[in-house]
Amino acid sequence: MFCLSEMEDTVRVPPDLLKLPLEVAIKKVLQKLLLNKVCSLTFCFPYTYTLSNLTKKSFFFKNKIQKVLSIGLCVTIYDIKSAEGGFVLPGDGPATYKVRFRIVVFRPFVGEVIAARFKESDSNGLRLTLGFFEDIYVPAPLIPRPNRCEPDPYNRSQMRWVWIFEEQEYIIDHSCQQINFRVENISYPPVPTEQAEDAKPFAPMVITGTIDDDGLGPVSWWEGCSERNNEDDDT
Question: For 19-33, b where at least 16 C-beta lie within 10 A, e where not — what string?
Fold first, then answer.
């Protein structure tokens, strides 16, 4: 779920940060540039490749094809490996450094099971949160069936989902302390050039998950299963 990625970039440290220790100043600049943003790596391939061969966003670059691969969402700056330079260009205030650094990246993979918490729900499905990341969606078709969606009696602006199994009803709401879901898809929406004032905040990464399988969904659903299995084994 988390990866440590090493990167290299040119970093401009503004004059007001130059009074700080160099590593601290560079970290502040990198945090502003990278935190909560999707980081990408760029690869160049021979011209003999065609755009139809590439599954990611691609474009021509001189006599090659450039392929951009998203490596995940930057969670924090782990450390600074090296910083060289410190040149101040004529007529410019910031000092420019060539920096090698490592970042902690949130990069789940399809098929991974992750523990999350309930955030909200509507007629389209569930929205889950990890605390630092909240763009996890479980669409209605990936909720166990039979089920129903009904108004939440404790929050009239929200709908809640109920799974019906063996004449028992299992509610999915804020009372569910932990919800296990399996990653079905990961997408990286393009950054919008314009956004309405009342629009939802832009999500650089969106995860689609499912809870329609054994062991998935609220942990409370399965707490009694092991006890029942042990009783069956004893008999």
Answer: eeebeebbbebbeee
| Radius of gyration in angstroms for the set of CA atoms belonging to the chain, rounded to a whole number | 24
For residues 139, 203, 72, 216, the Cα torsion angle rounded to the nearest 10 degrees is -20
What are the tens digits of pLDDT across the range 51-101?
Answer: 333 333 444 344 444 444 677 899 999 999 999 998 888 888 899 999 999
Q: Which residues contact 102 (CB under 8 A, 6 or more apart)?
A: 4, 5, 6, 7, 77, 78, 79, 81
Amino acid identity for residue 75 in this structure: V
Final residue before a domain boundary, out of 84, 106, 128: 106
C-alpha span between 143 and 127 (Å, rounded): 12
Which residue range is the domain that position 19 belongs to?
2-106
Is residue 26 domain-shared with residue 91, that is, in the same domain? Answer: yes
Q: Look up residue 208 and give its amino acid.
A: T
Q: Closest Cα to residue 210, out of 139, 147, 162?
A: 139
Torsion of CA 173, 176, 177, 181, to 10 degrees: -90
